[in-house]
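All the exercises in this workshop are built on plain-text protein records. A learned vocabulary of local backbone shapes supplies the integers on the structure line. Once this layout is familiar, the rest of the handout is easier to follow. An example says more than a description, so a record of this kind follows:
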Amino acid sequence: MPELPEVEALARDLSGRLTDRAIVRVDIAAFSCLKTYDPPITALAGGLVDGVTRHGKFLDIDVSGTHLILHLAKAGWVRWKDEVPPLPARPNAKSPLAARIVLDNGSGLDVTEAGTRKSLALYVVRDPNDVEGIARLGPDPLADSFTIDVLRDILERAGRAQIKGVLRSQGNVAGIGNAYSDELLHAAKMSPFKPANSLTDAELQTLYDAIRTVLTDAVQRSSGLPASELKGEKKSHMAVHGRTGEKCPVCGDTVREVSFADSSLQYCPTCQTGGKLLADRRLSKLLK
């Protein structure tokens, strides 16, 4: 799933490509992706793109004051086309195409979603906060207003909840998902199961610094890259996420995994848990 750094890079790339271009039409090829009906999708036709921004993991294309909001979910992506087919895109169950944005110069943007689990979402709204997921977002971790005191308050309110889950909850912090929560906890040398309200002042500072550094570095690496290269860039710079069984780049220990019903986390025992292996919930159930 694209997270804050990739969505920020997409917003910057698309802003350069779309701004001041007129939208001819938006074709919906997978009707399940369109989550709103007022304004209608046809309201975008003829509008000029004023810019592209980000809210957490949401992309916001401002079309003359009407907002086309995209949430790419787990398997969604956008693909720039220098030339799009002249005929409108049609629904096709075998195609990954979910929607197509056609511009006045014949170029356009394909919004795609791989796999059979369809969770990509597209909204047409007058105000971004009309999208529930945006309205309930927590603070952006790269905003100037995201201070260490803001992080302290988030963790204290979470009580003894596991810190990884707290950090990836969009209502607590906007934009951090499964991958970057693994990465920044590894950078902070902190167990993903550590209770959120148990941090010392020194640990809080270390975690805050890791959040800002890991995400800022990822944004800088991604900035200027085309959408086609962002996934590879993200994967190539992961220290532990998605690297189960490989050597930790910091200490050389083997990266371990904890699996859940629909996701998993990766961590380094030496760097993060004092050498202790965390219980793999899925394996524990099988052994009972």
